[in-house]
Each structure stands twice: as structure tokens, then as C-alpha cells.
Amino acid sequence: MLPSRKFLFKLCSHLGYKSVAELENSLSANELVEWYEYYQEEQFMPDRLELMIATLTAITYNAHGGKDLSAVDFMLSVSNEQKEKEKAKEKQKKIFDALDSFGT
């Protein structure tokens, strides 16, 4: 499912619409764009709860001797492809942080 389509389903749930078609017929394109921008800054409650629970799970797992995992590893809504991209970003950040420490 395309991310834009997935967002429409989340917005339906958030606003109480029965279907994406009903949502699209009720809101203008400008309103949809504004909702999308709002969502980028302030995710809806189920997404925030998933992140909070995933963060607590990662902290607990790592504290009890697990390998170094992040919250993204425990998020069900994040695809494996997205998880791999996130891991690559974290690895790059660690490398740059290590290189930066040599300069100071």
C-alpha cells in the first residue's frame, strides 16, 4: 500500500469517516495537504503510542543484555525496508560521531 493511501486510512480513523471515499468527498485537496503536514509534525495517538511502547521495549531489551536495538526494531507499522534504512542512518551517525571525536 502506498504511504499516501495508508495516511488516508489513518485520517479516516482519526476523523471518524467510514471510508476513504467519504473522506475524499468531504475534504478539499488543500485540507488534505494541511492534515498531512500536521501529521508530519504531530502524529495521531495510535502512532505515538506505538513509538512509546517500542522505545520502552528497546530500553528494557537492551538493559537486559540484548544486542543494541532501537525502537524502530520493535515497531510493527515499520516495514523491514524502512528498518534497514533506519539502521544504515544510525550506523552512519555512529561513524561520524566517532570521527568527530578525533577532531576534538
Model description:
This protein is mostly helical. The protein has two domains: 3-41, no CATH class; 45-103, no CATH class. Helices cover 73% and strands 0% of the residues. The protein is built from five helices and no strands. The protein is elongated. The N and C termini lie far apart (46 Å). The mean pLDDT is 81.
Write the layout of secondary structure elements.
Layout: H1 3-15, H2 20-26, H3 29-41, H4 45-63, H5 80-103
Key descriptive features of the protein:
73% helix, elongated, 2 domains, mainly alpha, 5 helices
N-to-C SSE series? HHHHH
* Unreliable spans: none
Helix content: over 70%
Distance between the termini: 46 Å
Largest sheet: none
How many discrete domains? 2
Number of strands: 0
Principal-axes shape call:
elongated
Mean pLDDT: 81
Determine the oligomeric state from the structure.
single chain
Radius of gyration using CA atoms only? 18 Å
Number of contiguous helices: 5
β-sheet strand percentage:
under 5%
Structural class: mainly alpha
Short recap of the structure:
The chain is mainly α and 104 residues long. It is built from five helices and no strands.
